Amino acid sequence: MKKNYGIVAAFDTTPALYQACLQVRDAGYTQWDSLTPFPVHGLDAAMGMRRSQVPRFSLTGGLIGFCTGMSFIWWANAYEYPLIVGGKPYFSPMFAFPISYELTILFTAFATIAGMFLLNRLPMHYHPLLKAPQFVRASDDRFYIVIEASDPKFNPAQTRALLEQAGGKDIAEIEE
Amino acid sequence: MSAPTAPTALANKFLTAGLAGLAVTALAFGFSENQQAVALAYLVGISYWIAVCVGMLLLILIHHIVDAGWSTVIRRQFEHGLSAFSWLFALFLPLLILAWVKPGLIWPWMDLTHVLPGGHGTVASDILYQKKASFLNVRMFTGMTLGFFAVWIWLSARLRKASFSQDADGDVQWTFMNRKTAAFGIPLTALALSFAAIYWMKSLEYHWFSTMYGVWFFANCIRAGLAFGVMITYWLYMRGDYKGIFNTNQLHCLVALAFAFVVFWAYITFSQYFLIWNANVPEETFWYNIREHGDWVWVGMLILFGHFFFPFIYWLSYRRKSTLRAALFISCWIAVIILVDLCYNVLPAMKDAHDDPLPFLSLHLLWVLTSVIGVGGICVAAYLRSFGTAKIIPIRDPRIRESLTHHEATAPETYQLEAHS
User: Fold this and answer.
1) ipTM
2) In chain A, what are the domain boundaries?
3) How far does A86 lie from chain B, in Å, by closest CA?
4) pLDDT tens track for A105-114
5) All structural domains of chain B with their residue ranges
6) Nearest-by-CA chain B residue for A96
7) Residue B3's CB: how many other CB atoms inside 10 A?
């Protein structure tokens, strides 16, 4: 038998899903997700999700970009090939600033995109949920909660009971 | 929902403080040996509060032109702030009268016999004045100043009338009227504030050129408007009026906008400095040269780090943008630094016998303080008087529901402004 990926439950309305998310969150699960056809405001808080870690990547990228701009202009104009342009000093943060500023933005953008892909583990060409045909409705008119077997609190019987009690329908186990 | 209880006692306190500040400033002007110092300090004080009110006016106009949703809850407070404009006009009249009675006391180009330092003749014989004479003369100055206030007071009256009337009848046509007001009001306000900055502040050194000056003042106006917006929010939240109305998401949007203008101000101010530094033309560089004299160089550093780096780094994190106390702290900080920025632009116009600027740290700062308290007391009193005349939020605005439930599905009552984990 193949390894169990997790347990899925379906919900018909947004409030039902929202209430179920509160229960799963309060039961202490961490490795789980909800699937909805459209963004549901407040669901992040109901799922107990923390703020994204992407800003840390952005900040790092921005700092690297700024330092790259400053040090590269210093290296090129004041160190490797000292050159007087327009009677200005070999190096001044004044004229290095526009370039450093542009590189700050550019590297921030790169780091943000890269951080988002990394944290989401993208690109992901296969996901166990794709095997279950009912999931096409997650992009149409149904709402799902998936609790993964990798969750430390996962227990096939208890987790199923929790989802049943939360009002989940068509509860099924998904293979890896 | 009824109108909030009018804080009459508080308004009277501010009015008293304002009148006291104005009286001290007037006495200082009457008895001081250096009348120019007191007059310039008063110019700083009144420009400061004009910046706050113009900022609020612009924020309302921008709100309407983009048909914004989230800012509907805070908009009413800005509308109350606009009630100060007619008082600001009255308080500007002494400067206008001075321009006619004592030409050259504040703006040197008004006195054609004023002798330029270094044996360069008088203002009348100065080619740089002659070329600008059709723009820089007392009649134009007076007419334009009257025009600026006419624009601001007229737009404010239209915006306030439409918004307050909608509270009573809920007619959506008021929203459309405000949108039209915004469409022609934005260019009018932009022109008025740019020319105001040029006439009142930039022309203190009429040899100078800078194409960024109007935008610099615009950036300070918006930053001042937003800083006072956060302070008002804090006051209303602590007072209890905003409980269950104002949530973390609206605060985050308000502060994110203020944060964006931290960067915008830095971009404009740096560009002005950088272009002048790079071109190295004497007619432009002298303006910064005199601001590197004496203690002014430290004022410049304070502006560089205090007006940009500190608020920028402090507000980078989401938590500090969405926590009321952190937002309030930096808003108060910015409100003070804007005043320093105005001092930096205005006060070095005072010169000693060697044509060097008088130092920043001096008795003149006291007159800046009395002017700011004087004009500010009147402005805050006007705001508080208006505050009791309308509901705390535009209750029948078509966007009010969207604003109250901004980004959240559950009832706003459950939100904590203080903590977000």
Assistant:
1) 0.84
2) 4-51+126-175, 54-119
3) 8
4) 999 999 999 9
5) 8-407
6) B274
7) 12
